[in-house]
TrEMBL record:
<dbReference type="InterPro" id="IPR041431">
    <property type="entry name" value="Mvd1_C"/>
</dbReference>
<keyword id="KW-0444">Lipid biosynthesis</keyword>
<keyword id="KW-0443">Lipid metabolism</keyword>
<dbReference type="GO" id="GO:0005829">
    <property type="term" value="C:cytosol"/>
</dbReference>
<dbReference type="Pfam" id="PF18376">
    <property type="entry name" value="MDD_C"/>
</dbReference>
<dbReference type="GO" id="GO:0004163">
    <property type="term" value="F:diphosphomevalonate decarboxylase activity"/>
</dbReference>
<dbReference type="GO" id="GO:0005524">
    <property type="term" value="F:ATP binding"/>
</dbReference>
<dbReference type="Pfam" id="PF22700">
    <property type="entry name" value="MVD-like_N"/>
</dbReference>
<keyword id="KW-0456">Lyase</keyword>
<dbReference type="InterPro" id="IPR005935">
    <property type="entry name" value="Mev_decarb"/>
</dbReference>
<protein>
    <recommendedName>
        <fullName>diphosphomevalonate decarboxylase</fullName>
        <ecNumber>4.1.1.33</ecNumber>
    </recommendedName>
</protein>
<dbReference type="GO" id="GO:0019287">
    <property type="term" value="P:isopentenyl diphosphate biosynthetic process, mevalonate pathway"/>
</dbReference>
<keyword id="KW-0547">Nucleotide-binding</keyword>
<feature type="domain" description="Mvd1 C-terminal">
    <location>
        <begin position="174"/>
        <end position="304"/>
    </location>
</feature>
<feature type="domain" description="Diphosphomevalonate decarboxylase-like N-terminal">
    <location>
        <begin position="9"/>
        <end position="161"/>
    </location>
</feature>
<dbReference type="InterPro" id="IPR020568">
    <property type="entry name" value="Ribosomal_Su5_D2-typ_SF"/>
</dbReference>
<dbReference type="InterPro" id="IPR029765">
    <property type="entry name" value="Mev_diP_decarb"/>
</dbReference>
């Protein structure tokens, strides 16, 4: 076993969303999902055994934080691989945490890769995705670069992500950072409430159809269809949140202003579509040919917001 292992994993943004669990303990979802891994945002995590520590310790962005979630995840390796001592985890998020930009996805993917190296497991990417899924469902997709599909499966073995490649599609994502603060409703709790919506079964059925349509659109490099499908899937997801027995909302007034602005851009003939995860931040799907023009329009109309252009990013990298 090596003394210290570092892994880097990038965030992913789902074009077909994961929003609901069939098995909470194993993080098995109710639907399959499809995402694009982003080059702009990532987590870099180092792990080492440290016998001087009384328990697993997490240093996140240079501050010691509650390690309970990491501890539970590491216990999966302890029960399935080896009963090892305390681990020091040092992680740096190059992405706002808990604001709907998939920080948990990149974090647990990176932690999975680092622990795989520390324990000399030599895991295949599919195996890594299964472990990462146990820490954060969407982390299963951050193992892979470009596009990834998380097959919902029915059990531990069949619920995993895999690569879905089309390196020729000139897809861009402009990330509008509406808020860098932690969201008030966790994704876990939000999913539980959304699954009580009277429209949830319909959303699940529609999502399966949209996944097939999305795969075909990506393979055709049809950015307009990709954007339209992703936007429909995303906004329908948020409709569930508003229509459940205990309604809640991740959107802010600025989120809604951005949605309206992007809709107007599309009506003007531009390739511009929104996708929004569990948080207020808006991702605008467009083409590389139009990204700079749309970015300028956004900056002129929303001078108080931070915008970043992202493209398809790499899969996990482990440094031994």
């Amino acid at each position: 076993m090596s003394d210290i292992i570092t892994a880097t994993a990038h965030t992913n943004i789902a074009l077909i969303k994961y929003w609901g669990k069939e098995n909470v303990d194993l993080n098995i979802p109710t639907t399959s999902s499809l995402s694009m891994t982003l080059d702009k945002f990532y987590t870099r995590t180092s792990v080492e055994f440290n016998n001087s520590l009384a328990q697993d310790t997490l240093i996140l962005n240079e501050k010691e934080v509650d390690p309970s979630r990491v501890h539970r995840f590491l216990n999966i390796f302890r029960s399935e691989v080896a009963d090892f001592g305390s681990v020091l985890v040092i992680s740096k998020n190059h992405v706002p945490t808990a604001a709907g930009l998939a920080s948990s996805a990149s974090s647990f993917a990176a932690l999975t890769g680092a622990m795989s190296g520390l324990l000399d497991l030599n895991l295949m990417p599919t195996q890594m995705s299964r472990y990462a899924r146990r820490g954060s469902g969407s982390a299963s997709r951050s193992i892979f670069g470009n596009f990834a599909i998380w097959n919902k499966g029915e059990d531990e073995e069949s619920s995993y992500a895999e690569s879905f490649l089309n390196e020729d599609i000139e897809l861009s994502m402009i990330v509008a950072e509406v808020s860098a603060t932690s969201k008030k409703m966790s994704s876990t709790k939000g999913m539980q409430l959304a699954q009580l919506s009277p429209d949830y079964a319909t959303w699940v059925e529609r999502s399966a159809v949209q996944l097939k349509e999305m795969k075909a659109a990506i393979l055709r490099s049809d950015i307009e269809r990709v954007g339209l499908i992703a936007q429909e899937n995303s906004l329908a997801m948020h409709d569930l949140n508003w229509n459940c027995p205990e309604p809640f909302d991740y959107f802010t007034d600025k989120t809604r202003e951005l949605i309206s602005f992007v809709d107007n851009c599309y009506k003007e003939g531009l390739l511009a579509f929104v996708t929004i995860d569990a948080g207020p931040n808006v991702k605008i799907i467009t083409s590389r040919a139009q990204e700079k023009y749309i970015l300028k329009r956004l900056q002129d109309n929303f001078p108080d917001l931070q915008f970043d252009i992202a493209h398809a990013g790499p899969g996990i990298r482990v440094e031994v």
